[in-house]
Amino acid sequence: MDDNNYITGLQGMGGTGKTTLATQVGKELQKLKFFDHVVDTTVSYTPKIETIQDDIAGPLGLQLKNYNESERPKQLWSRLRNNEEKILVILDDVWGPIDFEKIGIPSEGDHNGCRVLLTTRYVHVCNSMGCERGKIIQLDLLSDEDSWTLFQKHAGISDHPPKHLLQKGREIVKECQGLPVAIAAIASTLKGQQSREKWDVTLKSLKKPMPMHGVDKDMTRFYKCLRYAYDDMKDEKTKELFLLCSVFHEDEEISTEILTRYSVAMGIFGEVEDKYDDFRSQVVVAKNELVDSCLLLKNAVGSAKMHDLVREAAQWIANNKIQVVKLFNNYHLKERRILDICHAKERAWISFLATLTLPSLRF
C-alpha cells in the first residue's frame, strides 16, 4: 500500500472474494513488516459501533469495556495514532459511508501511521469514503483459467482428468460465470464423483430454466448454483440447518451452542428423550458438512457464519418454506418468519423458544 494512500478501497460484486483477498493482503503486509499490526472488523449493512470498536481495539491490547460511549472513540483514536507503530485497519463489507470520528478512527489529515483498507460492493461507497480513483482496486470475476483452477481444487480432480470429465467440467464452470462462491459450492457437490452421469445431471440442472422471481438478473446463475448445491444435499436435516443459518444476522458469528439450541427448539435434531450432547453432536456433524460444501464459513474458534450472498440465496430458497410464528425475544414479542421445518409432532418445541436467550433475528 502506498504511504500516501490513507484509505484504499477494494470493490467488487458479492462473492468475488473480497474478504479473502483483504485478509491475505493484510497477513502478507504484516509479514513483510509494512505494518506492526493488522486488525479487521466486519461492518455489514447495519454497523454496530461498539462491536467495530472492540474488534479493532482488542488485538491492539486496548480494552474499552470500562469506558463510556463518549470516551471509547477517544481512546481508540489515541491508540491508532501511536507514532511508533504502523497499523492497518481492514473494514470489511461496507455498505455505506462510515463516521470515522464516531468510531475513533483517525481522519485522513491526522492519521500518523494508521491506514485503512475497506471492502465493498459499490464504487460510490469508495468515493464517499474519500478513496480517489487511484486508491480503488476493482476485483473482477475470475478468468476462465482461474475459475477452472478453483473448480479443480474444490472438486478434488487432477490436472489431467478423464476426457469426459474435463469437457463437462469446463461447461459446468462456465455456468458459474467466474463467481468463486458459486464455483466452490458446485465443485464440492462433485468431489469424489467419477461417473459421467453425475456430471451430466449437474450440467443439465444448471442449464435448465428456473423461475427466478425477485432475483436480480445478474445473479440468476449464482442462485441456480446455490439451489443445485442445496438440492444435492442428501440429508434433510442438514438442509434444514442450512436454511436455519440464514435466519441469523448478516455476518453474524453463530456458535455451536446457539445453533444446537435453535435446532432442538425447531425439532430439527433428536428426539425428546435424547441428551443435549447427542443433539450437539448431530449439529456439529451437519455444520461440518455445510462447511465442507462451502455453504458455511468456519472461523478459528469453531463458530460459523454464512457468506452474505449465500445467505441471500438461502432465504430465497426458503421463501416457500416459511411460516409465521411468534418468538419471545427477552421482553419483546415480535412476529418473525421461521422456516417451515416444524412438523406436527415437533411444534411443541416452539414454546421452548420462550425460555431461551436468543439474539435478534432479521430478515
Automatic annotation (TrEMBL):
Domain spans labelled NB-ARC: 4-156
The record's listing under Pfam families reads: NB-ARC
Report the domain of life of the source organism: Eukaryota
**Alphabetical GO biological process terms:** defense response
Record's keyword terms, sorted? ATP-binding, Leucine-rich repeat, Nucleotide-binding, Plant defense, Repeat
The keyword Acyltransferase is annotated on this UniProt entry: no
Stretches of the chain forming a coiled coil according to its record: none
State whether keyword ATP-binding applies: yes
Q: What is a GO molecular function of this protein?
A: ATP binding
Protein name according to UniProt: NB-ARC domain-containing protein
